Amino acid sequence: MNRYRSFTATLILTAITFSAACGSRQAANANASGNEAKIVDVTTARAEVRQLPTYFEATGNLAGDLQTDVAPVVGGKIVQVNFDVGSYVEKGSVLVKLDDRDARIRLDQAAAQLEQQKKAVGTAVAALRQAQVRLGLKDGESFDIETFSQVKSVKANLVLAEKELARAERLYSSGDVSKSILDQRRAQRDALIGQLDEARSNAAVAVKAISSAEAQVAAARSGVVTAQTQVDQARKALSDMTILSPISGYIAERVADPGEFVTPNAPNTKLATIVRTSSLRLKIDVPEASIGKVAVGQGISMQTSAYPDRSFAGTVVRMLPNVNAQARTLTVEAEIPNPNGLLKPGQFAVVRITQSKAEPAVMVPTSAVVTEGDVSRVYVIRDGAAREVLVQLGLLDNDRIQIKQGVADGDTVATGSVGSLYDGVMVRQTN
Question: What pTM was computed for the model?
Answer without folding.
Answer: 0.52
